[in-house]
């Protein structure tokens, strides 16, 4: 997908919401477990209920790999369903990949060519040649971990060298890589106080912001500090939407929570 299409969708729907599709068979409504493919049926119902309020979907690949072949097939059916019925939605394979170049190229082929996602999340620890292979596919994007939402982010990401924090060096260096315009970055909503600083390094990039809802991130702060001239934010909520109810009304409740987040975003989209 071209960035312009994503920006237009944000404008039209007055939303920057991304719905995470992290399906845990222990959390989905019990009546779905009797169906042939409960993971896909759950996703289909969530997508139908939320698509008018969101601009992106983000299945976390771990939740599919955990169920082996059946999980992978459900992932394939889910991405095909979105691409066929809602091609305007930006799709994110949350896989956090990154390896020597030769291997990264195969990860990129898996998510961009075989599954046809618009983007994949990547981890920057192995550097330039582990990320550049993801940037060689037309209209595809790699979303690199910048400053993550979790507690352990402080173990390495805040290490300081000559007044610069490690995550800042990573962001700055990544801008020198080939096709770096195809990079987006993950910044946890729990770290929104750093967004101003991050925007100085990355004024034009899209940021994927997970961590509102279940992890306690503040949507208002994210919008106030993170927006740029093309909006530049994809704000994810997963458990807060897809597990709003574990009863038969799960899709209605998911829509209700997605709409509530969309309405909080609307004033920031002019
Ligand atoms: O890359 C991510 O999406 C991600 C990065 C990060 O720093 N923190 C984070 O929570 N995530 C993912 O975002 C989702 C958050 O889910 P909820 O906390 O349920 O909204 C999960 O799929 C996480 O793996």
From TrEMBL:
Its EC number is 4.1.1.23. InterPro entries: Aldolase_TIM (IPR013785), OMPdecase_type-2 (IPR011995), OMPdeCOase_dom (IPR001754), RibuloseP-bd_barrel (IPR011060). Coiled coil: none annotated. It holds the Pfam family OMPdecase. Pathway: Pyrimidine metabolism; UMP biosynthesis via de novo pathway; UMP from orotate: step 2/2. It catalyses: orotidine 5'-phosphate + H(+) = UMP + CO2. GO terms for molecular function: orotidine-5'-phosphate decarboxylase activity. Residues 16-254 form the Orotidine 5'-phosphate decarboxylase domain. One of its GO terms (biological process) is 'de novo' pyrimidine nucleobase biosynthetic process. Keywords: Decarboxylase, Lyase, Pyrimidine biosynthesis. Belongs to the OMP decarboxylase family. Type 2 subfamily. This is Orotidine-5'-phosphate decarboxylase. It comes from Psychroflexus torquis (strain ATCC 700755 / CIP 106069 / ACAM 623).
């Amino acid at each position: 997908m071209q960035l312009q299409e994503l920006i237009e969708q944000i404008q039209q729907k007055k939303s920057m919401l991304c719905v995470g599709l992290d399906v845990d068979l222990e959390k989905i409504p019990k009546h779905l477990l009797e169906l042939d493919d409960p993971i896909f049926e759950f996703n289909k119902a969530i997508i139908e209920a939320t698509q008018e309020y969101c601009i992106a979907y983000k299945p976390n690949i771990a939740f599919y790999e955990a169920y082996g072949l059946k999980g992978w097939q459900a992932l394939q059916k889910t991405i095909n369903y979105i691409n066929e019925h809602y091609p305007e939605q930006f799709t994110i394979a949350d896989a956090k990949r990154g390896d020597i170049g030769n291997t990264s190229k195969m990860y990129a082929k898996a998510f961009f060519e075989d599954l046809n996602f618009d983007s994949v999340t990547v981890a920057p620890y192995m550097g330039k040649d582990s990320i550049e292979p993801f940037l060689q596919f037309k209209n595809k994007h790699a979303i690199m971990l910048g400053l993550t939402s979790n507690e352990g982010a402080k173990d390495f990401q805040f290490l300081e060298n000559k007044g610069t924090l490690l995550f800042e060096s990573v962001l700055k260096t990544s801008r020198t890589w080939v096709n770096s315009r195809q990079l987006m970055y993950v910044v946890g909503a729990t770290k929104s106080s750093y967004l101003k600083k991050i925007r100085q390094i990355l004024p034009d990039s899209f940021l994927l912001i997970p961590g509102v809802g279940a992890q306690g991130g503040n949507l208002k702060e994210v919008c106030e500090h993170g927006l740029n001239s093309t909006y530049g934010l994809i704000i994810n909520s997963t458990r807060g939407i897809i597990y709003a109810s574990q009863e038969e009304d799960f899709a209605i409740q998911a829509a209700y929570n997605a709409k509530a987040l969309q309405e909080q975003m609307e004033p920031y989209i002019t």
